[in-house]
Write a structure and sequence with these properties.
Layout lengths: L12 H23 L6 E5 L5 H9 L4 E6 L2 H10 L5 E5 L12 E7 L8 H11 E12 L7 H13 L8 H4 L5 H10 L3 E14 L2 H5 L8 H8 L2 H14 L8 E13 L2
Parallel strand pairs: 1-2, 1-4, 2-3, 4-5
Antiparallel strand pairs: 5-7, 6-7
Helix pairs in contact: 1-2, 5-10
Length: 268
């Protein structure tokens, strides 16, 4: 597996939640408010992870049904526990070959997943295939090129200062299409109509430095994977660099923010 992607196949739900899941849970309700889907519809969620968007869908969208798919059995197991709603069904599946009937869903949604799919065009074509005519298709990804996840950007700034070779692992290098223009082009190329894109932001406040640092030691995701791979001396240098660089409030907390780009379109 390529070095840049060898930590992308996240499996451990608790580790993902500590690193990213707690922040994606703040973006999900904001995304659904913007998506504006009606009540009583049949939903498909692709790349459900540990269930952040799934929980928000059943809590605020009153779906008739929700089928949530992820390639990770570990994530599916966590999501089933996190979202014990009878309308929600969780199963493993591939975004590039969805195990879903053609023209069977009113809303297709995805959170923080598309950038990890090898063939993004194929995934969008699959979304269009399973959508009923006029169905709403929406997704969001982190603003990696714009440094939109400030806690991650701070980590990589420190890491690449100490180890310039780490620059090739950074998400802004790996996912340059995660911009409004890049995402809109992908969606239009898949034959979807009425494409709209917006920024969604949420605060990411860490209670202290240990709250910030610990998730990077757990190995779930590219930055934590890189951190966990370091020798103990190198990891300590990185920890010290971050402790020096990060902004602190008077109470010791670290207040940053995260920004995602959200896209929606209509299946025709």
């Amino acid at each position: 597996m390529a070095e840049a992607s060898r930590h992308d196949a996240w499996q451990a739900g608790d580790r993902y939640n500590a690193y990213m899941g707690r922040w994606s849970r703040q973006i999900a309700p904001r995304f659904l408010d913007w998506l504006g889907a009606a009540d009583g519809l049949d939903w498909l969620e692709i790349g459900c992870g540990t269930g952040a968007l799934s929980a928000a869908i059943v809590a605020q969208c009153n779906p008739r049904s929700l089928l949530s798919i992820d390639s990770s059995e570990g994530f599916i197991a966590t999501a089933r526990t996190e979202v014990p709603d009878r309308r929600a069904v969780f199963q493993t599946g591939d975004a590039q070959a969805l195990p879903v009937e053609t023209a069977s869903r009113d809303v297709i949604a995805s959170a923080l997943m598309l950038n990890f799919v090898p063939d993004k065009h194929k995934a969008l074509i699959e979304m269009k295939r399973v959508a009923r005519p006029g169905a709403r298709i929406g997704f969001y990804v982190w603003d990696y090129p714009g440094g939109g996840i400030e806690f991650m950007r701070a980590f990589w700034n420190a890491a690449t200062t100490l180890d310039p070779a780490a620059l090739e692992l950074t998400e802004d290098r790996r996912f340059p299409f995660c911009t409004p223009d890049g995402l809109a082009t992908l969606v239009r190329d898949a034959g979807l109509a009425n494409v709209d894109c917006t920024a969604i932001e949420a605060p990411t406040v860490f209670s202290d430095f240990d709250d910030y640092w610990r998730p990077f030691t757990l190995g779930a995701g590219p930055a934590p994977g890189y951190c966990a791979s370091l020798a103990s001396e190198a990891q300590q240098r990185l920890r010290d660099k971050l402790r020096e660089d990060l902004p602190r409030r008077d109470d010791g907390s670290i207040a940053l923010k995260a920004r995602a780009w959200a896209v929606q379109a209509i299946a025709v």
